[in-house]
């Protein structure tokens, strides 16, 4: 199915009927969940590989559905993107993540806390996106320099001129921009250089095979070097084993996330973790 922009899905095929009904149901439930404030954020720590300290978190949305149980973001974010619900949803995520970051940092005596928030290309399409981010920063008191917006490589590949303009506006606010799942798309190095990107997040699929498949070790190493040579920082996602951590340290990767350190955790737990100044 292809989105034609206004929340209408074209390319219907009878085989899709079941999926369609389920989607419409989820879409409807999601609207209610947003209105009733039922969505939650979990937070996965980001670790500075040089110090092993928790320097911040990535906010990951969670939907505790009244009858279906916890719904995975991969099962409702794509729907929200097609319907346009991603705009209010994403706005809520940004607001809540910034509010929490300011609160936890204050509780820890003002120790800076970096917060990373996932942003859909559909949000970037909105002419007023940078403006709405500026408003959230002002309302929550979040320092722009501590906010990182994560976007996938598709930002670099479609509507490039319009996206570039939007990213320049966001950069002007003083925040940082990361390319999420880096290495899985096909963004060209030329685009990467042209766009005001600060951070490359190395996709889990590379980290997964570190030390197991020689080629992938080489690829990860190449991404870390690429980041360095472009003056960007690198974050490895999906670290589950010590061997992967050791390999990434060796390569000089700057930051890491993964189950090895911590799964995404509820807000109360994340707040405590940061307060303790935990090294993991
Ligand atoms: P992502 O941004 O690449 O986030 C990383 C995903 O990998 C998260 O899944 C996280 O729980 C999982 N993960 C982290 N460490 C490990 C590990 O060591 N091993 C394994 N196997 N998995 C790990 P999650 O929370 O289910 O989120 C899935 C995706 O949904 C995210 O991928 C992101 O693309 C999207 N998403 C989540 N929250 C938001 C949001 O607020 N807005 C938008 N636009 N997208 C979101
Ligand atoms: Ca992410
Ligand atoms: Ca990612
Ligand atoms: Ca991913």
Provide tags for this entry.
alpha/beta; eight-stranded mixed β-barrel; two-stranded antiparallel sheet; 12 helices; binds ligand C2E; binds calcium ion; PAS domain S-box-containing protein/diguanylate cyclase (GGDEF) domain-containing protein
Could you please describe the fold and organization of this structure?
With 280 residues, the chain is α/β, with parallel strands linked by helices. The protein is 47% helix and 21% strand. The strands form two sheets. Strands 3-4-6-7-8-9-10-11 form an eight-stranded mixed beta barrel, surrounded by four helices. A two-stranded antiparallel ribbon has the order 1-2. Helix 11 links the parallel strand 10 and strand 11. Helix 3 runs parallel beside helix 5, helix 3 packs parallel to helix 12 and helix 5 runs parallel beside helix 7. The longest helix is centred in the middle third of the chain and has 22 residues. It is globular. The N terminus is likely disordered. Bound molecules: ligand C2E and calcium ion (3 copies). It comes from Actinoplanes derwentensis. This is PAS domain S-box-containing protein/diguanylate cyclase (GGDEF) domain-containing protein.
Topology:
Elements: E1 2-3, E2 9-10, H1 17-35, E3 40-48, E4 53-65, E5 69-71, H2 73-83, H3 86-107, E6 114-118, H4 121-124, H5 129-140, E7 147-152, H6 154-157, H7 160-172, E8 176-182, H8 189-194, E9 199-202, H9 204-208, H10 214-229, E10 233-236, H11 242-251, E11 255-256, E12 265-266, H12 267-275
The protein binds ligand C2E and calcium ion (CA) (3 copies).
One calcium ion is lined by residues 180-181, 201, 237.
């Amino acid at each position: 199915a292809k989105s034609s922009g206004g929340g209408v899905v074209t390319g219907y095929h009878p085989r899709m009927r079941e999926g369609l009904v389920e989607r419409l149901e989820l879409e409807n439930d999601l609207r209610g969940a947003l209105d009733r404030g039922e969505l939650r954020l979990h937070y996965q720590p980001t670790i500075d590989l040089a110090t092993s300290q928790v320097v911040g978190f990535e906010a990951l949305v969670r939907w505790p559905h009244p009858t279906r149980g916890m719904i995975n973001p991969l099962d409702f974010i794509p729907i929200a993107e097609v319907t346009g619900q991603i705009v209010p949803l994403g706005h809520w995520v940004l607001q809540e993540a910034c509010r929490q970051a300011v609160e936890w940092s204050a509780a820890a005596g003002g120790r800076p806390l970096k917060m990373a928030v996932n942003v859909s290309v559909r949000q970037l399409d909105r002419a007023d996106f940078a403006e709405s981010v500026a408003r959230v920063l002002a309302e929550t008191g979040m320092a722009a320099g501590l906010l990182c917006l994560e976007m996938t490589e598709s930002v670099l590949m479609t509507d490039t001129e319009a996206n570039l303009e939007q990213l320049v506006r966001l950069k002007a606010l003083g925040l940082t921009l990361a390319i999420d799942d880096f290495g899985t798309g096909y963004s060209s190095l030329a685009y990467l250089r042209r766009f005001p990107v600060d951070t490359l997040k190395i996709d889990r699929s590379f980290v997964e095979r570190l030390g197991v498949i020689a080629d992938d070790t080489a690829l990860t190493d190449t991404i870390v070097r690429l980041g360095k040579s472009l003056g960007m920082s690198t974050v490895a996602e999906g670290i589950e084993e010590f061997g992967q951590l050791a390999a990434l340290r060796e390569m000089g990767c700057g930051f890491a996330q993964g189950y090895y350190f911590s799964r995404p955790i509820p807000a109360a737990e994340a707040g405590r973790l940061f307060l303790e100044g935990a090294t993991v």
